[in-house]
């Protein structure tokens, strides 16, 4: 029997308080990893409560860490907290992301910048903190999107950000290869999370019609591939984009 065993490894999952991030945190934990559930500390405390719920359900070997991926200092602090609690960091999953869909003609500067700042610059900040703190032989998994391949209508900001993530992944895989740190990207299709369900139903139905498997992804469909890339089974996989989209190519 082949098993994925991440015992003794420590993983940080950005945006780990809900959706795909929470599913990934749970699956990494089941594989034996220590898990740091990162969340954006909103004024109302909603994300903190969600993160606490995730960590409580996981139990031992799980902690929460507030931090805005848009701020490099925050991500450096998250890494420091993780290393202080567990002795080091081995895995980074750059999952945090937002949507602000609108056609280019109607998109505001704020809608453009907020998505680029979170979905691209946020990944850069996570990776930069990882370069400083990740142990040799570690793993970085970045979340891209099928949208970067198909150029989804009304998502210029999101597509630009996710395309940038793919480029960043390829560059960093070369820069970190000497330390045996692998860097890969996952490009999911629509995942049935709050973010995925925020896409208007008519648009989602159009997308569904293009998926040969005739269904959208469940969070665990994507989380399982992330865990594979975080494991020793993927030690010779780097600089790649794994498409987890049910066969949807636009």
Describe, in plain words, how this protein is organized in 3D:
The protein is of the alpha/beta class and 250 residues long. The protein has a single domain (10-238), classed as NAD(P)-binding Rossmann-like Domain (Rossmann fold), CATH 3.40.50.720. It has 9 helices and 7 strands; from the N terminus they run E-H-E-H-E-H-E-H-E-H-H-E-H-H-H-E. The chain has helices at residues 19-30, 46-58, 72-86, 109-133, 147-150, 156-175, 194-197, 201-208, 219-230; strands at residues 10-13, 34-39, 62-66, 89-94, 134-143, 182-188, 241-244. Strands 3-2-1-4-5-6-7 form a 7-stranded parallel sheet, with helices on both faces. Helix 3 (72-86) packs parallel to helix 4 (109-133). The longest helix has 25 residues, at 109-133. The protein is globular and about 50 Å long. The N and C termini lie far apart (37 Å). The model has no long low-confidence stretch (mean pLDDT 95).
